[in-house]
């Protein structure tokens, strides 16, 4: 969108004193959210973990085990990208999430974290989409494994149709075995999407139809 697309609606114009007062009230509310997030994070660090099979995925160079995705790290973050076996392109919102990843992933390796993408589609489709999007991240296929079904990334709806879910899995390598320590899907992925967080703090938010915005604010279908 450009300046030509700028909405007519805008926040109320006030003097500096009223702005400072309103901002201070907003910041106080956000600090409460921050403190609550700290409590939730503390609870997350106390979650138990469960051992996971050392699945044999397919990478661009052949078979690759889940434990091999760790490389030299002991922590692994996996983005489960929706890309069905019969799809020709990756999910638009998942692809947008990959585009949100840090330009320099070395900061993660500095913290002993490895990163990989996992999808159900055959590796040739994943590699084609990866090349088209210009991604350098390791992307492996779970085709031929039960990974997506075991952990609920692919489920059946009431009509018996397969439904894919996006999200992130967090693993710890302990004594040579992979353990799942946390996973999140749906809007749980938003915490790690910087563009979405930037948008939330602009005057118009994400401009999506589920948001509670003032009358006249631009809003469009979330997946439209």
Question: Describe it for me?
Answer:
The protein is α+β, with helices and mostly antiparallel strands. The protein is built from six helices and ten strands. The strands form three sheets. The chain has a six-stranded mixed sheet with strand order 1-10-9-4-5-6. Strands 2-3 form a two-stranded antiparallel ribbon. A hairpin with a 5-residue loop joins strand 7 and strand 8. The longest helix is centred in the first third of the chain and has 29 residues, at 16-44.
Give the topology.
Elements: H1 16-44, E1 50-51, E2 56-59, E3 62-65, E4 75-80, H2 92-99, H3 106-110, E5 113-119, H4 123-133, E6 139-141, H5 147-150, E7 154-156, E8 162-164, E9 167-174, E10 177-185, H6 194-200
Parallel strand pairs: 4-5, 5-6
Antiparallel strand pairs: 1-10, 2-3, 4-9, 7-8, 9-10
Quick overview:
The protein has helices at 16-44, 92-99, 106-110, 123-133, 147-150, 194-200; strands at 50-51, 56-59, 62-65, 75-80, 113-119, 139-141, 154-156, 162-164, 167-174, 177-185. The chain is α+β, with helices and mostly antiparallel strands.
Shape: globular
The total beta strand count reads 10
Average pLDDT metric: 94
User: Main β-sheet, in a few words?
Assistant: 6 strands, mixed
Which percent range fits the helix content? 25-40%
């Amino acid at each position: 969108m450009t300046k030509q697309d700028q909405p007519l609606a805008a926040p109320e114009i006030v003097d500096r004193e009223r702005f400072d007062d309103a901002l201070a009230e907003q910041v106080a509310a956000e600090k409460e959210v921050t403190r609550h997030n700290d409590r939730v994070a503390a609870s997350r660090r106390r979650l138990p973990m469960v051992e996971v099979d050392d699945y044999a995925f397919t990478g661009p160079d052949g078979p690759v085990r889940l434990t091999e995705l760790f490389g030299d790290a002991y922590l692994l973050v996996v983005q489960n990208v929706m890309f069905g076996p019969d799809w020709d392109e990756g999910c638009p919102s998942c692809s947008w999430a990959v585009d949100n990843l840090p330009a320099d992933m070395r900061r993660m390796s500095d913290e002993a974290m490895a990163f990989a993408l996992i999808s159900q589609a055959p590796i040739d489709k994943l590699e084609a989409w990866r090349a088209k999007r210009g991604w350098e991240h390791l992307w492996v296929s779970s085709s031929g494994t039960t990974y997506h079904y075991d952990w609920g990334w692919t489920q059946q709806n009431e009509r018996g149709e397969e439904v894919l879910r996006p999200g992130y899995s967090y693993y710890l390598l302990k004594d040579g075995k992979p353990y799942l320590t946390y996973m999140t899907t749906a809007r749980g992925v938003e915490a790690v999407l910087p563009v979405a967080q930037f948008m939330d703090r602009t005057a118009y938010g994400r401009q999506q139809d589920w948001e509670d915005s003032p009358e006249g604010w631009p809003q469009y279908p979330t997946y439209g």
